Amino acid sequence: MPEGPEIRRAADQVEQAVKAGPVAEMYFAFPHLQSYEASFARANVIKVETRGKAMLIRFDNGYTIYSHNQLYGKWYVRSAYEYPVTKRQLRLAIHNEKKSALLYSASEIEVLRDEEVEDYPFLAKIGPDILNQETSPEELYERITSRRFVNRKWSSLLLDQSFVAGIGNYLRSEILFEAGIHPGKRPADCTDEELEQAAQALITLVERSYQTGGITVDEETAARLKKRGQSYAQRRHWVFNRDGEQCRIDGTDIQKISAASRRLYFCPTCQPE
After folding, report:
1. 138: annotated active-site residue
2. Active site includes 42?
3. Where a domain ends, among 125, 154, 188?
């Protein structure tokens, strides 16, 4: 499933396309939405936001289109009315004179009045989105140490969208490595220094992944590994998907475990239990 940075990059592409001119035609695959198609004729897009793994396309007609890609959803941006060759099912199409923004395979799409957006069930319960709103390390430290979250294991806490929106499986492993925290710990088990490192790592890793197209190692390490001939996939992460390979910091073998029913990777020396 794409995580927050991937959805934000998709939103950037969609925004550039749909703001190129007023809507020429709107298409909804789901019957309960088709009555809205005429309401979008000649409407203009104001902006495209993300809230974790959800996307909000805001129009000047008082409506917002909410979508969540879930496991299989994918956006394509093409020249107007040019469709990709794919076996996926088209769920939403926004056409203007120059571009088409096309959402395939997504199962969760809704049309909301602007005043209904904040009360939509998924949006009402999620935590801050680092890529959509200014969030400081101090604010995240307070959130981490709050009664609601402090006694949760990091391995499950980081996947909880009500904690911080947009964190998924690869970011979970990478954030814990960057902070030097063992995945079996809780915030309550951590030192103040570890908690401060975790708050900063949340911001650093999400922003870095967004800016680099999914790379979570630092710029210097990425450049060094690229110079050695490593592919994008090989040089992308500190620990994620690297079980049995050597830690980039101290050479220890990376370990893989299952946590919250999903795979998690860590370095046992950089992240001591």
Report:
1. no
2. no
3. 125
Inter-CA distances, 181 with 17, 91, 190, 191, 244, Å: 41, 41, 8, 10, 19
Among the listed residues 2, 5, 128, 183, the single catalytic one is 2
> Does 83 share its domain with 114?
yes
Among the listed residues 152, 153, 262, 263, the single catalytic one is 262
pLDDT in tens, the chain (273 residues): 679 999 999 999 999 999 999 999 999 999 999 999 999 999 999 999 999 889 999 999 999 999 998 878 999 999 999 999 999 999 999 999 999 999 999 989 999 999 999 999 999 999 999 998 889 999 999 999 999 999 999 999 999 999 999 999 999 999 999 999 999 999 999 999 999 999 999 999 999 999 999 999 999 999 999 999 999 999 999 999 999 999 999 999 999 999 988 999 999 999 998
Whether 262 is a known active-site residue: answer: yes
Same domain, 13 and 80: yes
Question: pTM value?
Answer: 0.92
> Which residue in 9, 53, 242, 248 is the catalytic one?
53
Spatial CA neighbour of 96 closest among 10, 174, 19, 154:
19
Active site (annotated) includes residue 108: no
| CATH number of 35's domain | 3.20.190.10
Three-class SS state of 63: strand
- Number of structural domains in the chain: 2
